[in-house]
Amino acid sequence: MTPFVLSSVPFVLSLSKDKLHRPGINRLSPNGALHSPSGVQPELHVQWAVPAEAVPLPPGVDQMDWGTLQATVAQCRACGLCQGRKNTVFGVGDRSAQWMVIGEAPGANEDLQGEPFVGQAGKLLDNMLKAIGLNRAVEGEQDGQAGVYIANTLKCRPPGNRNPEPVELQTCAPYLARQVALVQPKIILAMGRFAVQSLLQTTEPIGKLRGRVHQVQGVPVVVTYHPAYLLRNPADKAKAWADLVLALQTVQQA
Ligand code: SF4
Question: Ligand 1 centre from 141 Cα, in Å?
Answer without folding.
Answer: 32
